[in-house]
Amino acid sequence: MVAYIVRRLLLLPLILFGISLIVFGMIQSLGSDRLLAAYVNPGLLDKLKPDQLERIKDKYGLNDPMVIRYFKWLGNTIKGDLGWSVVGKEPVKDALLHRLPWTVELALYSIIPVVVVGVWLGITAAVNRDKFVDHFVRIFAVVGWSFPDFVFGLLVLMVFYSVLGWFPPGNLSFWADEVVKSPEFRRYTSLLTIDALLNGRFDIFFDGLRHLIAPILTMSWLWWAYLLRITRSSMLEVLSKEYIRTARAKGLSERVVINKHAKRNAMIPVLTVGGAMVIRLFAGTVIVEMVFNRTGMGSFTATAATQLDYASIMASVLFYSLILVLGNLVIDILYAATDPRIRLG
Amino acid sequence: MKKEPILSVRNLKTYFYTEDGIVKAVDGVDFDVYQGETLGIVGESGCGKSVTSLSILRLLDEKGKIVDGSIIMEGKDLLKLSEEKMRSIRGNDIAMIFQEPMVALNPVFTVGDQITEAIVLHQKTDEVTAKKMAVDLLRKVGIPEPEKRVDEYPHELSGGMRQRAMIAMALSCKPKILIADEPTTSLDVTIQAQIMELMKELQREYGMAIILITHDMGVIAENSDRVVVMYAGKAVEYAEVKTLFNDPKHPYTWGLLHAIPRLDIEQQRLYNIPGVVPNPLKFPKGCKFNPRCEFAEEICRREEPELKQIEENHSVRCHFWEKVEEAKRAEVGERV
Amino acid sequence: MRSETKRILRRLLRNPSAVIGFSLLIFFIVVAIAAPLICPPQSYNPYMIPIVSWDLTPKPPSDGHPFGVIAGRDIFYGIVWGTRTAFRVGLLVTLISTAIGLFIGSIAGYFGGWIDEILMRITDIFLSIPYILAAIVITSFLGMGLNNVMIALVAFGWMAAARLIRGNILQVREEQYVLAAKALGVKNFLIIMKHVLPNTIFPVLIQASMRIGSLVITAAALSFLGLGAPIGYADWGSLLNFSRNWLLGASGEAFKYWYAIVYPGVTMVLFVLAWNLVGDALRDVFDPRLRG
């Protein structure tokens, strides 16, 4: 297993390098002048003296050949200088840091219903193959998988907000937002709901939750259908294996056969796929945050795209790709740890 | 000395209800199994021998149904027991080992875990005692360093050791009957011999009956006391092993024996039973073997023969079993 | 071969979800083909939804406008001609990205060695960027418009097909390796292709039909964000872009505008559902056969 992990770890920098090349390449297509606008607050640009301008150009390698420019860019990026965000009206790094927690919160909460509902329904459907439950669940899943997330989101908004008024869009109600911005509200984790609890403000906790339910529902809608199908087919495949027959031949009850012998094997591929899906969940925040008008990395990226805020766009790409790559690594490690055939070579 | 059989199968019929039609996998099988003895079930692939063994333990998948027959063990008909009672018999009174131990053992649990599971379930011991018993069992089946092996996973053992481990698992509760479904088919020839030796040893020690399922006549000859020959879902001949090999009465048995290459006589060509095993969805009318039978006549194409007892401990399902007698005598005459 | 096709058709027809899927698909094809008849174009570019009112508030379904009006444009028209757009985007992108994928995968599989390594690493890198993000980024650089969206989707959509054919080639090569003591380069190639191609066609078809659904969703999402089709273009995602503003504006009133969401939304769901069901049905029929 160690060899396996080491191999995966070695690939990591290579992939990151490749992504950085793509990102860098795309930025360079803008041309030097527009590049400048991406790195520096345009408002200040005009006020700069020629030698200050030259220093900035040097810092970002705008006068240097591509290769040097790349390394300067890489260096700046690692140091956290990602340019200037037009959308956020602040350096990109700060814009990211302000919005990151919201997205992380949304994505993490969404994992729960996806996994719980998807896996549970998938196993139920597989165990009751071809009975009514199975058909019903599968139809539900196919429809779910066919539903674009923004369509579902709009429908949810329409029903639960416009009609019922239960779950409004946005991150917080106005009054809650004021409290959170005030100095008395301490930020421990930057995740609103947890911070609210830690601050003892249950009213803010519930307000945040209220604003989260509809987006979580929308985020998970597509993915629990996907996870369900994967779980079901994995379970079905395992149930047809010889060792299940052996388990029954030993006289074990059906419940033990399924819960102990079958599930353990079925979950292995589900873990890999499910893990990959969790990462795609993050990408889903782009649409969902736009639909529900929430602050976060997703809406930030989408808005940046429409406003051609290139520095922000590229930073977002880096962020999401990093999540994907690291997430895959974690999954690979988990997978190796759970399957004894890989763990022990 | 007329013993009482420990298991009696009468007129067993197991059908599979598939999308393409009804498959009569087992359509009339009769045999008895005696304590301390081995019953061999032999036949080509698809003749229904595996399904027969699965029917005894009622381990068929959803499409399979036992539609007729009785399986009596110690006075009780297994086919009429509740699922709960059946579960207490599986792995306990009747145990089964399968052909491919790599796929028949759960890859994510240790060998020891899988053995102790059965022990804890049926003998209601605690984990620690069960594990000690598992180590002893592994030692008994000839696995070296059993204390180490008990914590290893199936993929860490060799093919032969895996099969031994499966035997250990099956014997963990000292079953009265062991069903072995092609236990050596996927193993090397030398390991095959070892495994069969092991099984015979354990049979002597535990006094259990063995139902040995195989397509290999050689294995049957060396290891059985009685034999059932199956063809197209039916038992076509049932005899003690010596009788079967020296005095076969069914044309199919005769064909099978004939097909074994001989060292003691000169053969120009190896004999081959003409034709192929019929498609279970399209069985021929009358006797299922008739298209391939040298001795077939009109009645064979119309009427299915019954399984008739022609001697003590010898039954045949054929209209013209005497013809086989004649052919054999002629052949022996030739040789002499 | 004929009886094989008959058997396949029989099994497909016995599967209710397959029947629904194919029926829906045929329905959409008919609508797409008959678009000029159902909604006669009113300008030189039939894909621009005609403006029927200068008042931007949405109007509920009425006689002349069975699905209502939004942003001054007839929703029904948008949906009918949007069917053509959906097919165009879905099929073109799938076709081209699959072709590219097959090409790259074939090279990787056939040549092996470091060529394979490099191509696979490149595939990994492309796979590391989430699809919708890649599309967003490329369109922001190339500019708005469906053509650019399609380029973006193709640029990041070829990987699955590449892996598929590479896997098949590797499998076949493993078998041929034993035979190849002294093999001519050309002969090897022909042998591999002869074995690989028939085994690959069906999985590729199945994979493609299952991807079209999510592809159309992604393309529509881009239009929804305002990055795809220009304003007023006959595209379902674009229609939903209009409705979003109205939804978020007024609370309590917005249910009035249900038609602006429901009609394009349901259409999209049915379209994607059709492809998913068809893909599922194809896989149910062909996959077990392929597995032996």
Top-tier CATH class of the largest domain in chain B: Alpha Beta
In the sheet with the most strands of chain B, the strands line up as: 6-7-8-3-9-10-12-11
Number of domains of chain B: 2
CATH fold name of the largest domain in chain B: Rossmann fold
Order of helices and strands of chain B: EEEHEEHEHHHHHEHEHEEHHHEEH
> Would you tell me which CATH topology of chain C applies?
MetI-like fold
Fraction in helix of chain B: 25-40%
* Helix share, percent of chain C: over 70%
Keywords, separated by commas or semicolons:
heterotrimer; A: 345 residues; mainly alpha; two-stranded antiparallel sheet; 2 strands; globular; B: 336 residues; alpha/beta; Rossmann fold; 2 domains; 8-stranded mixed sheet; 4-stranded antiparallel sheet; 13 helices; 12 strands; 23% strand
Structural notes for this entry:
The complex is a heterotrimer of chains A (345), B (336) and C (292). Helix content of chain A is 79%, strand content 1%. Chain A is built from 16 helices and 2 strands. Chain A has a two-stranded antiparallel ribbon. Chain B has 336 residues and is an alpha/beta fold. Chain B has 2 domains: 253 residues, Rossmann fold (3-Layer(aba) Sandwich); 74 residues, no CATH class. An 8-stranded mixed β-sheet of chain B has the order 6-7-8-3-9-10-12-11, with helices on both faces. Chain B is globular. By secondary structure, chain C is mostly helical. Chain C is 75% helix and 1% strand. Chain C is built from 11 helices and 2 strands. Chain C has a two-stranded antiparallel sheet with strand order 1-2. Chain C is globular, with a radius of gyration of 23 Å. The model of chain C has no long low-confidence stretch (mean pLDDT 81). Classes of the chains: A mainly alpha (345), B alpha/beta (336), C mainly alpha (292). Chains in contact: A-B, A-C. At the A-C interface, helix 1, helix 7, helix 8, helix 13 and helix 14 of A face helix 5, helix 6, helix 9, helix 10 and helix 11 of C.
